[in-house]
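User: We ran a pulldown and think these components assemble together. Before we commit to crystallization trials, I'd like a predicted model of the whole complex to look at. Sequences follow.
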Amino acid sequence: MNGGTLPGMDDAHGPADSGPDRVVFHVDMDCFYASCERLREPELRGEPLVVGMGYEPGETAGAVATASYEAREFGVESAMPISEALELLPRRAGAGEGTGCEATDDGKEPGTGGTETGRYRPVDLEFYESVASEVKAVLHDCADVVREVSIDEAYLDVTDRTAWDAVDAGNGSDPDGDDGPAPSTAAGPADARTVAEGYARHVKDRIEREAGVPASVGVAPNMSAAKVASDADKPDGLVVVPPGTVASFLAPLPTAALHGVGPVTERTLADIGIETAGDVAEADAETLVAALGDRGRLLSRRARGEDDREVTPRGLPKSLSRESSLPATADEATKRETVATLAADVARRARDRGCLYRTIGIKAVEPPFDVNTRARSLPGPVDDPSLVESVALDLLDEFADARVRKLGVRVSKLDFAAGDQATLGGFAEEDTDGEPTAGGETDRPDGAPTGTRPKGEERERMTLADWAEADVETGLDDAARHDEESEDERPDGQASLGDWSS
DNA sequence: TCTGGGGTCCTAGGACCC
DNA sequence: TCTGGGGTCCTAGGACCC
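Assistant: Here's a predicted model for the assembly, 502 residues in total across the polymer chains.
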């Protein structure tokens, strides 16, 4: 940072963040699923492509997971029903295609447009994961700290790998260089090329070369600005927001461009005359708090370019869930069967990941879109598929007469017991060693079998009934320990409020 | 908009404890 | 017994993100 800025050059954000300027990258893969499909099926390149799930030809269910930019040109959006999306796309002239994968249609005449043809491919997560792991390999190679946010997105702290120093390669970096290389894509003072920009380009190029898929990268002194920057010039973008320019970079953007502002918040802000990030930054913080609660304060800081969250690797998951849509039905057998299947699925995933859970819940969505959730906590953490099923079914009873269009099962209050860490990903085969676990016993009040997974040696073979009887003491100890753990993760109260971008 | 699936975090009210 | 304050845990719902 020394030498980077002249004294008094700090604009907008006064002495607030006087710490050393960090260099944060936000890497966001461009329409990742579609890019993956094109990787293994190059014919799809350049064509409007929709990747979705839950769709069978002739059905109306199913939603768009990802649309290629070509498809977006036709108005296709994420989460749109597949059938609707396919309506928007040009038709394949030859129609037919036994696969049912092309956007053909019987009722309409073939697309008049040129050679473009709308395509549909079903989501193939396994394949995307394999591509993603190649991307992550590059990221981890390029940064000391990587926070993987999702399959197609990550933050990198590369402060120790690069710098904000200006690159004055050859002639003075003047905007006059019309004949020179294309101007930096950097928003803000694009004339000031930085070393960080070069490094970001390197990372971006490596991803494309080694994983075969395109990415957009945002470069900024903090996470939230980097996030917005990566979004600012998609696809294939590289936007650099040097220190001191964050607030001015954000100012003209609509509030919805800020991470954490969705349709509801956008609307709420619009109602009080706030349309842009700049408006947010200028607004009285108390006004924002009055409208949005504590999030208002946070939003205010973000809009002013203040965000001192450190980039940290993502921890273990907090919950696991499975849900599925079905044609709206009140039929009890159907509902119970669905929930039982989901329960088994969730329990299996939990076991695969080596985690215990203490809360089991369900979700029942009634038309048009009333989301109901119910949950029940157990006295202690367990790994017990049959218990997941019985509790889930029990909770479902409340909706015995309800018409539902979607059902879900969730486990939470997860516990990745220390002893099982080593076998993460598969202790199922080994840990059920010899011991006829309590699985067969039916000593619980409701007769459900108990298969409590021991957390440590001393808890071997403890059953749920044991838990219930065992003095509150045990439970309290457990609860207390958990509290300490989560406290430790948040050094200050601020962080617990502020960590939206997990 | 007649909304898919998997997550995270926050809030509010009630129960319970001291 | 009409009554204070603080704290935690639990559940349900909501907003948001990809």
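The mean pLDDT of chain A is 77. That may be worth checking against your pulldown data before setting up trials.

User: Thanks, that helps.
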